Amino acid sequence: MDDDQQLYEPVGDDMDAEESGPQVQPVNEEPLVASGVTAKPMETEYSGHYEWELFNFSKLSEKQTSETFEIGTYLWRLLCFPRQNVQPWRHVSVFLEYPEAHYTPVHLSPKASFKLIIKNHKDSSKDFTKDASHTFTQDQVDWGFSQMLPLTDVSVASGYVRDDGAVVVRVEITIQRDERYLYDSRTETGYVGLKNQGATCYMNSLLQYLYNLPSFRKAVYHMPVPENEEPSKSLPVALQSLFYRLQYARGPVSTKELTKSFGWNTYDAFMQHDVQELNRVLCEKLEEKMKNTKVEKTINELFEGHTYSFIECINVSYKSTRKESFMDLQLDVKGCRNIYDSFDKYTEVEILNGANQYKTDDFGMQDARKGILFDDFPPVLQLQLKRFEYDCQRDAMVKINDRYEFYDELDLDRENGKYLAPNADRSARNLYKLHSVLVHSGGVHGGHYYAFIRPDGKTWLRFDDDRVSREDQRQALDAQFGGGDEDMIGPVPYQQQAAPLKYAKFSNAYMLVYVRQSDWPTIMCDVTKEDIAKHLLDRLEREMSDKEARHRDKMEAHLYCSLKVATDKDIEQQVGDVSHFDLVDHDRLPPERCHYRMRKQTKFADFKEEVARRTGIPVERQRYWTWKRRNNATCRPDRPLTAAEEASQLVDLKDIRDLPREGQGAAGAKKSLMDIRLYLEELPESVSPETISVHQDVKQGGNVLLFFKYYDPLTETIVYRGHHVLPGAIQAMDMGRYLLEEDGHEVDVPVLLFEEVKFEPTVMVVPCDGRRQLRDLDLNHGDVIIYQQRLSEEIAEARVRYPTADEYLAYVHNRRQVHFKRLDEPQASPTVTLELLRSTTYDEMCQALASALNLDDPAKLRITRHNYFSNQPQRAPIKWRTVSSLEQLLMHQQHPTDIIYYEVLDLPLHEMEQLKTVKVSFHNERGEFVGEQHSLRLRKEATVSDLLMEMAGRLQQAAAALTNRATSQSGATGVPTSSPTLPATADRVSQGGNAPAPAPAGLSSQAAADEAALKAAAMLAADGRPMRLLETLQSKVFKVVDPNEKIDQLNDNYWQLRAEFVPEDQLASSLGEGDFLVHCAHSLLPTLPPAAAAYWAARSQGQQQVAGESAAADSGNVQSRGTSGGVAPMEADDVDADGEVPGRGPGGYRAFHRALVEQMPGAAFGDPFLIRVRPHETMGQLRANIQAILGTAPDEFAHWPVLFVGTRPNNAWLEDSDDLTLYFGSHRIQFDSAVAASAAAGGHTDAVLIGPSKLMVIILHEDRGGGTMRRQPPSNNRYTYEKPVKIYA
Prior knowledge:
Residues 530-557 form a coiled coil. This protein is of the alpha+beta class. Helix content is 23%, strand content 27%. The radius of gyration is 43 Å and the shape is flat.
């Protein structure tokens, strides 16, 4: 077979190396790539060579192994088979081995090109060379040539054998980058990325854009900060540190310090927010921090522009103008093909004529032009594309993925500056160059943000979290237009074309940043270390140096061996203190004395010298034992190191390394680390290691290494007493007496011996038969013997809880410190801390807790488990006696806890579990919440009818208590009391009602109102007035509950349950055929278009009437600026000198009503209610009835729009004269069931209840509840979280 055709053949793992090793020549290693040079795929990282001398080569026959050598942060070895490793045994075989391959993850496996050379000592030009390239993995740890050199050529005469009989093998290794796993953004692009904390990609995109505005970065560097301020506590310091590391760090940068300075926690890091919202909040905070500094105006100078709003009369000389600033512009995407269409739409002129004429001071109603132009543009123009809009039909936010084009250059002076105001400075050229494209990929409920940025104005870079890569212009621009993916269709003949398929692109531009070309040199200035204050620079350099050192240590960790060495002194410190079981916890060993970090090629003899230096134990008195993790989960010394092992390098001790157990990080980078745990036995001075040899099996007459603990039952302590190497022929009792005598006890004291076998999952401590020899007790190296004095029966019974070691260790293993907290105060400190056993039963635990709380009846305690992950109580409490032991209570999904929550009930738990507690709020006939929420407790088989009867009785009791209290107070003071009539409550006041009646002396207005309402309710209950139960949520009624429904089916954790007396006009006896019961609710107005918004503003000021089309309407010059579905109050510039809105007529009226019908109303608030609609009742009569129920002043109620909202039929605005019976009959309205109608009327009725999910009456007005408004308490759910984006710094 030719050399080129030879197969590379790895050596089998079963071939062991010989102990003797050849001589070693030093390794020559040099890096081939300097930092800063652009790396190419598979570029070399390091290269080096190593020479190996094999003496007496002609006499060698078995496999030879070189010493381990290091090249390119990897350890290597050469393997040589002098007589070939396979038949026909005619060649010399040479292989290169990576001995760490078995412990190295795939992404860290080295890829190397290498040459294997057998040197010719007579003529160097005849060196025999073969080269190969290989990735060394766990499956292929070595690579080379089985037929390296024919044996017939290996001779002194040929020159391949030196005169002294040695053969020299040389290897030259070049380690290559593996681009599958290694990508260096700094080397490839000159920039580094930001690490994603969970869902912070939106923030990463924004920070990269701001960093790549050098003038902004320089301003951040110039912000004055205290010298010793922590980055996590200061926003300016955190941002300075982040920008510095982005500029000079070698790898991806963490944003944790910055988010900590925001005041964010882990929850915020996993909640994705809007990048535009964060941009505004961040810039506002920075602007605040920059006040009174030399960079105070930076934010405004970079991002602030000004608009010019005008209303100009067409036929007369009158013009009203206003100048406003902006930091970014929101451009429409829907209905616009490109960015210029958006600017055209933004500056579109609206003609105010006809009914929408503009009212002037001097000329009356006039036709006018209204619009917005730009007075000036900022140097950095931030454009927010309105990709997200509210869809009225779906009642939800949707993402607009329409195609929308933007350009590399943006000319805002186009068409003779049509976007500019008349007095704008036209000397400044408004020609912009695209700097950044922030992209959102995904939908409304989630997605991913990344950015395309052009820092140098030429090359586009993609900043995608921690990766930065070069991209072409098509990816940055064309690919982010959105719309259908037409590239899927190729140029095929027309006859062969199928129906074209377009795939929606969910990845598209969301924010564009343009920089004015004339300002580009200023904005994109150079930023160097000279721009940073010296004290700040020193600290930033120190911080980055520390981070790089930690990173370097991490990257070179695979070159080092970590050794943890435990001695008798360490075991003595831990036993009886931090642990009672086993011998030592290596993670608790003192690092300065017991932890060693040494390079893997270090000789073990050198390691022993280092141990002697630290511990003071001479090398000749050191004997090392390996630790073994036994099948019973204990860890004990197993065997001493052999002479060959102590003569080798640390890397050769790979067979005794401590590998992570399953489930404890066995995979990943940690697997490549070499951790070795050893026990150092200090040998006596006068005894040689051969005298106390431990290599022979104890059953064959050898010695055994045993460890001893002493237990004192009187003090209940256990201590470590050292180790002994003992012959197997010693009798156990003699050993025990010797140990007691060594401790200073009398020799004739009886001794007890135990072997500590295991402690998980249960304790196993076995008594030893003192009459037997050690060899007969099945003892092995590392076993633990516990000895103690045998106590007399009198002492044991009178003074000792645990007379023997096995009983004491069983107690220690089972005891638990349990912290009990009140369920209603989960974050407070524990009320009681008790020491209990894991086997403690439910009853025993309750008894102990009741004793600590001084409770008479432990059965009145209800227990709730702890949630390990949320650090909160679990949702459901523990049912009575359903948990057998404390151990089950303290486990949550295999995680142990030490917290238990408790409640003290007013009756035993087993009785309460036969009952159901329902939280119900009582409301009066106006729908107003009265008093406090009631907790009604009934048997589970009870019905809603029983619940309402209990509520009626509760109301009568409350009224009687108030009467008794008033009587006693009257008798004490001599002041007579009276029962006031039902006044308006705070709710009524908040909704525009009359002022409440004066409160009796000593009572607040609210208390007086509640008292009057309770007394009125008691009178209704006494008269037998029926009640009904409603399920409400978010200020809307969703269901009238059937009185025959079981209360066990009610869910008061989700619904808000509301009980009320059926109003007199809605009783079954009052209702008849043709009557309707309709649900009513209060809501805010939706966001209105300009004309409708102006009409609403005028109506709010009392200038317009809602009812009747004859009311004057506004021209629409007022734009909606409100949030949450409302409209902000008018500003001074929105009205003329007389305080009137310009323009009158029916146009605003119609626009207002059309907007109400086409859009869903805003958020509901207040208390909903039911109202009766009589046959052929008109809309005007319905409005009057609503006004009477609410008690609102007629003048104020006249300004409240009332409309029908539903899905069948759709929203409808009815005029005052419209017949509601005809309206209901003309639509296919889905009515509620007859059962629900009867429940609403308190008895059987022929009236119709309209389903609230299909149609309801909505009353639109402002929510003026303020702090005095009393409403039904919301559902108390501990697991509901809602947080907006916020920077608290």
